[in-house]
Model the fold of this input.
Amino acid sequence: MRRVFLMGLTALPLLAGCAMTPPTALPAAVVFFTEDSAALDPAAQGVVGDVARQAAAQPEAPVTVLGFADPDGGRAYNRALSAARAENVAEALRQAGVAPARIRTTPRGPVPFEMMPLESRRVEIRIGQVAP
Done:
């Protein structure tokens, strides 16, 4: 039996009986980046706009922005890159009308490749729950 958890537009299959527990809160959206970049492309700007509309519907909910990077290039470099990615997404959310006091950025630094390198080069945006 397979269970699928939706994460933005990406389905994440999990096998029944797997020791992995499902996440308590799925991201409202995921923004992907190219290698060694913290710049938001037009598609990312569209995702941020969608999240800003979702956040407007929940005006009291916190918005958590988690930045990630792949493990290439050294730990300190990737920690800084994940922080820059999270801050750029947070700034785009502020420009889209989300109150700065609601936004919390958390750089997670380098994470191993999950399926493809692109999956590690991401920012997760969560509405309504502060990330652990």
About this structure: Confidence is low (pLDDT under 50) at residues 1-24. The beta strands are 2-7, 10-15, 29-32, 63-69, 103-110, 122-127. The helical segments are 42-56, 75-95, 117-120. DSSP finds three helices and six strands in the chain.
